[in-house]
Design goal:
Elements (H helix, E strand, L loop, with lengths): L1 E5 L2 E8 L4 E6 L20 E6 L21 H15 L4 E6 L1 H12 L4 E7 L13 H10 L1 H9 L8 H5 L11 H13 L5 H17 L13 E6 L7 H10 L3 E6 L6 H4 L1 H13 L10 E2 L3 E2 L2
Parallel strand pairs: 3-4, 3-5, 5-6, 6-7, 7-8
Antiparallel strand pairs: 1-2, 2-4, 9-10
Length: 302
């Protein structure tokens, strides 16, 4: 793990590969760089990926949240990311964003549009923000306070790793098809939530609700002319599909691929598929062909 001072914050990051094809990868919430652990080893060394941990997450600095959580807003995270690119001397790059990382990418596109090339979004929080469900903060409070609650909550982000009946009962048990590496990674992801800042636990939903009310970022979608490929798992229980479809319809240059056998977290559920999409999308010199879905057990569907 490397660390760099980006503006007024120290951010941790991991780096894979080298070359002219550079991708800045931004995780979701509650997250860390570990969510890409099964994907990065599958990528060619000529694709340079910089996976960064947002402020308040992982080994990055965790400043005390402001009273209004303004120092943990999506716009603030975007400023951090751009500052990291400056420090690393990266003039132009591609972007990958998962979940809330998608909204951070959108803020970056608005801030410095000429700096970015292609954009790959995995089950993103859209520029519309999120309308919080009743009891959402209570669920997050329980997840923060208790590891078992965090385990159960995060299991819903990766439903294909668990037996469906155990998820419904609120006591998730791994499915027989979940590999040892997936089980170990999931446990580590849960453990990493123990060190998250309150700015992540509570500042993130506060800001996403504020974005929903203002629609200020959504109004800027017409200027996000970059080529977007948006991936969505049909079993995603976290992000409303209607929001994603509406975003793709309003972006000037976007297409949507929906995958039937995956939830919110393809990077952990079917890492080989996400690795192939990374390669096809970021290393191709023209738009990639539609991606064939991959069954988590039986491979590529015909």
């Amino acid at each position: 793990m490397r660390r760099a001072k980006a503006g007024n914050i120290h951010l941790s990051y991991v780096e894979h590969g080298h070359g002219d094809d550079v991708v800045l990868a931004i995780h979701g919430n509650p997250g860390c760089v570990d969510w890409l652990d099964l994907v990065l080893p599958l990528l060619p060394p000529t694709l340079r990926v910089i996976a960064v941990e947002c402020r308040g997450c992982g080994d990055s600095e965790k400043p005390e949240p402001a009273h209004d959580y303004s120092n943990y807003s999506m716009a603030t995270h975007a400023v951090d990311m751009i500052a990291l690119l400056d420090v690393l001397g990266i003039a132009r790059c591609h972007l990958y964003g998962h979940s809330t990382g998608g909204m951070i990418c959108s803020h970056m596109l608005v801030a410095q549009p000429a700096r970015f090339r292609k954009v790959l979004l995995l089950d993103p929080v859209t520029p519309f923000g999120l309308r919080l469900a009743p009891g959402h903060i209570g669920v997050l409070s329980a997840m923060k306070a208790d590891r078992n609650a965090a385990f159960a909550g995060l299991a819903t982000a990766m439903p294909t790793l668990f037996r469906a009946e155990s998820l419904a009962a609120g006591e998730p048990q791994f499915a027989d098809t979940a590999s040892t590496s997936q089980r170990r990674l999931f446990g580590r992801i849960v453990d990493m939530t123990r060190g998250l800042s309150d700015g992540i636990w509570f500042g993130t939903p506060h800001d996403l609700a504020r974005e929903w009310d203002s629609q200020a970022l959504a109004a800027r979608m017409p200027v996000m002319t970059h080529e977007h490929l948006v991936l969505f798992g049909k079993l995603d229980y976290w992000i409303p599909r209607d929001d994603v479809e509406r975003m793709v319809a309003q972006l000037p240059n976007a297409r949507l691929e929906v995958f039937p056998y995956v939830g919110h977290s393809m990077s952990v559920e079917i890492p080989l598929l996400l690795a192939r999409i990374f390669i096809d999308f970021f290393m191709a010199r023209s738009k990639a062909a539609p991606i064939r879905p991959v069954h988590p057990v039986h491979g590529v569907l015909q």
